[in-house]
Request: fold
Amino acid sequence: MNETSSCCAGMKGFYGVLAACLLCGIGYLAGTQTREPGFSLPPHLINATASDSGEEFSLATGRVSGDAEGLFVLDHATGLLQCYVMYPRTAKFGAVFSANVGEALAGRGEKGSKYIMVTGDANFPGGGRSAPAGTVLYVLDGTSGAFVAYGLPFDRTMMTANRSQQGVLTPLDMGQVRQMAIRE
Reply:
């Protein structure tokens, strides 16, 4: 990798973070501007998520509940995926969930795999304490084309009580985007 591509890779991450900050700022301003007398948009109506991948790690953020966000971190060397949830009342990470991406990808997530990771919103049926979190995490192995979608079994009652929790990220479904072998 030459200096130019290394610089551009760093700038890609910078622009991703800058875009997320701008979206949050716009969301805040939209929530505080008065549209009509006595009417304003609450700032929590606009949520921004972000993701970035490097040579060694990928990270993404996603909505876990109406009050909390998760930080998803994937170690490319080991395949260890972790989600840390910051509790809003304490401003501390109160929950951690993990999984091994290599296991979910049926051994295709080998050392040297290049991962891409993003989050998406989900409204799963159910409610109360056992309802899944409002986000799905998607991980793609860029070398094989295999992907997996994870759900998060988040307990909102434990968060409200400031009780720590830990668990396993649940594979929801998986697939393969590359359907043909590549000829050399």
Q: What stands out?
A: The chain is about 20% helix and 40% strand. The longest helix spans residues 3-32.
